[in-house]
Design brief:
The protein is an alpha+beta fold and about 240 residues long. The chain is built from six helices and twelve strands.
Length: about 240
C-alpha cells in the first residue's frame, strides 16, 4: 500500500471491510503510526453503530429501510475501489454516514492529515451539540494552560493510552501563513511529532477569524515519561509550551 492509502484505511479497518492482505498490511502500519491508533480508537463507536452493515451477498435478506441507503452507499463505494485496488473500501476526508430510519447520524473526520501524523485542523464548531473529535475531547477534559509567545494562547488536554499519549490542543492568536507541529518532549529530551498543520493567512482566534483551532494527535511516549509539549513552527520558533 502507499502511505496515503495506509492512513485512509483506518475507516475500512474499523468496519472490517479490508481484505486479508490489506488488513495484515494495515495492522503492520498501525504498529508504527500513532495517529492511526488515535483515529481507530475514536472510530470504535462508529464501528459499533454500523455493526452488520457491510458488503451484502446476493442471497442476503433485504435490510430494514433505514439501513438500505447506507448499505447501498457502502456497496457502491466498495465496488468502485475494488476496481482501483483489490477491493479496499476507502472512507474520504470528513465522511458522514446517516442512518435514516433510526435517526442516527455518525460523522467523523477520517483521512487526509496534510502529510503529517496526528489530527487535522478543526475550527470551533458553529452548531450547538455538534463538536469535532478534537474539540469534544478538549471540552470533556481538564485543560492545562500553556505559555505562549507572539500573542499565541492555548492549552492541552492529555490522556494516557496503552500505546502512549493522546492529546487535544486549543490555540488562539495564531496568525498565518505558518506551518506548525505539536511535539512531545520526553524527560530524556526525545522529541516526537504528534501532528502537523498549516495555518492560512486569516489565522485562528484573531480579529476577522475568531474561532480557535483544535487539533489532536498521539505520541508513542507514555504520559508519565513526557516532560512537556511544544507547538513549533517549521522555522523552529516555539509558539506554545505546555508543562505536564
Amino acid at each position: 500500500m502507499t502511505s496515503q492509502v495506509e492512513h485512509t484505511d483506518v475507516g475500512a479497518y474499523a468496519l472490517g471491510l479490508l481484505e486479508d492482505d490489506d488488513r495484515r498490511a494495515f495492522e503492520s502500519h498501525l504498529l508504527g503510526c500513532a495517529s492511526c491508533r488515535v483515529e481507530l480508537d475514536e472510530l470504535s463507536g462508529v464501528a459499533s453503530a454500523l455493526t452488520g452493515v457491510g458488503p451484502l451477498l446476493d442471497d442476503d435478506p433485504p435490510p430494514p429501510d433505514g439501513q438500505a441507503q447506507v448499505i447501498d452507499l457502502l456497496r457502491r463505494r466498495q465496488a468502485a475501489d475494488r476496481r482501483a485496488r483489490r477491493g479496499t473500501w476507502v472512507i474520504g476526508t470528513a465522511a458522514a454516514v446517516t442512518l435514516v430510519a433510526g435517526g442516527l447520524t455518525v460523522g467523523t473526520q477520517l483521512a487526509g492529515r496534510a502529510g503529517a501524523p496526528g489530527g487535522q485542523p478543526v475550527a470551533a464548531a458553529g452548531h450547538a451539540g455538534h463538536l469535532g473529535p478534537a474539540e469534544q475531547f478538549y471540552a470533556d477534559g481538564t485543560p492545562v494552560e500553556g505559555k505562549g509567545a507572539d500573542g499565541v494562547t492555548g492549552g492541552l488536554v492529555v490522556e494516557s493510552k496503552g500505546w502512549g499519549t493522546h492529546a487535544a490542543l486549543r490555540l488562539s492568536g495564531l496568525r498565518g501563513p505558518l506551518e506548525c507541529e505539536l511535539v512531545s518532549v520526553s524527560r530524556s529530551g526525545e522529541r516526537h511529532v504528534m501532528t502537523g498543520w498549516s495555518v492560512p493567512p486569516a489565522g485562528y482566534g484573531v480579529p476577522g477569524s475568531p474561532d480557535p483551532l483544535y487539533m489532536h494527535g498521539g505520541s508513542p511516549v507514555p504520559l508519565k515519561d513526557i516532560d512537556r509539549f511544544e507547538v513549533v513552527t517549521s522555522t523552529g520558533r516555539t509558539l506554545l509550551t505546555v508543562d505536564v
